[in-house]
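Re: that backbone. Tokens:
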């Protein structure tokens, strides 16, 4: 169950990071509220996951999911640039996350 909490916490990190961008520095009310609500939920789920998953693993997976998700949202929804170097960097993050999951007991 902890890994499910961690997965959802990471997905919510993508939502709050994306909505923070859309809030334009917290000047737009709806994206600002979405940011704060999903941020709180993401932190809570991360804390629940950390009951059984080691700190280093949980935090790295959480930020990794958020990083990869934010990259995907940026490319697809915000027309951010994509090139081979950026894709390679994301592949390295994914590789690290897989290795962390495989090495956890």
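Recovered sequence:
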């Amino acid at each position: 169950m902890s890994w499910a909490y961690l997965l959802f916490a990471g997905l919510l990190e993508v939502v709050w990071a994306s909505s923070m961008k859309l809030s334009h520095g917290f000047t737009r009310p709806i994206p600002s509220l979405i940011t704060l609500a999903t941020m709180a939920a993401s932190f809570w789920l991360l804390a629940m996951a950390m009951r059984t998953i080691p700190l280093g693993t949980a935090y790295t997976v959480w930020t990794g999911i958020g990083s990869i998700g934010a990259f995907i949202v940026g490319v697809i929804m915000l027309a951010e640039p994509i090139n081979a170097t950026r894709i390679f960097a994301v592949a390295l993050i994914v590789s690290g996350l897989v290795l962390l999951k495989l090495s956890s007991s």
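The mean pLDDT is 94. Residues 46 and 59 are 8 Å apart (CA to CA).
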